[in-house]
Design brief:
There is one protein chain. The chain contains 15 helices and 2 strands. Helix 3 packs parallel to helix 11 and helix 10 crosses helix 11. The protein is an all-alpha fold. A two-stranded antiparallel ribbon has the order 1-2. It is globular and about 60 Å long. InterPro entries: Acyl-CoA_DS, FA_desaturase_dom, FADS-1_CS. One of its GO terms (biological process) is unsaturated fatty acid biosynthetic process.
Length: 329
Amino acid sequence: MQGPAAHAGTASSSEATEDARAGLRAPADGVPEKPGARGQRLSIVWRNVVLMSLLHLAAAYSLLLIPKAQPLTLLWAYFCFLLTALGVTAGAHRLWSHRSYKAKLPLRIFLATANSMAFQNDIFEWARDHRAHHKYSETDADPHNARRGFFFSHIGWLLVRKHPDVIEKGKKLDVSDLLADPVVRFQRKYYKTSVVLMCFVLPTLVPWYIWGESLWNSYFLASILRYTISLNGTWLVNSAAHMYGNRPYDKHISPRQNPLVALGAIGEGFHNYHHTFPFDYSASEFGLNFNPTTWFIDAMCLLGLATDRKQATKTMIEARKAKTGDGSA
């Protein structure tokens, strides 16, 4: 069984090589390359515009149903939100994108199932795009380049065709480790079916079948509202956490420390730290504080379902603060 997280240590040289191969290392000088093709005309995907507009209108309507719903239905919706979030944070992000810890087969199956509930593209696409985001952060090869504004980095990037640089440089990333995982391949093969079942059918049927909630309330609260909130929680990491907050670890990059985003994204708002030390399984130097995802990973380690947590040492963190930090706490 893996020892305490504090003893997990830093990434070894071989692990650092793996991180570089996966496109997780920042430029040597810490300064993002200048974006190109700034005048490129956006090609709007109107289908996505319509679908996202309808989804958010339905979520707004869902708020009116909250007083009419049974308390158990609201608790179930929140439970589904937590599962959804873990499928992204502990799964697609910290495990498959950054390989910051190792997970045994039962845990990988659970996280892939929760990830299908999240409905944010399959694990392979999510991890590939996230690796591009780190390697080419805030350039035109970054899928949700924050230099193109809050709206673009939050949701706009999903409403337009990808910049050619995203496609071109994304193809050069080594994603062989993702394709080597049978869980990732299975989820990708049956993604549409798994999304229908996990994101919409299961959340709707449980309250109706077990405690007699109406299908209408169940669908709009446990599926539509929960899904919309979880989407925006993830998107705030791309937008708000790249624009608002301090930069105690590296003032030369845009990602910020944003505790409010950390609350909404169950631990993913300490973004200046994460972009400085992307291999750290906790995505923060504060351990369990504001970080339910870290609680979950630590619990899985205690159960023997996760191992090999990577973590930056205190010495490494303090040295980086002194060298490139903005002097804030």
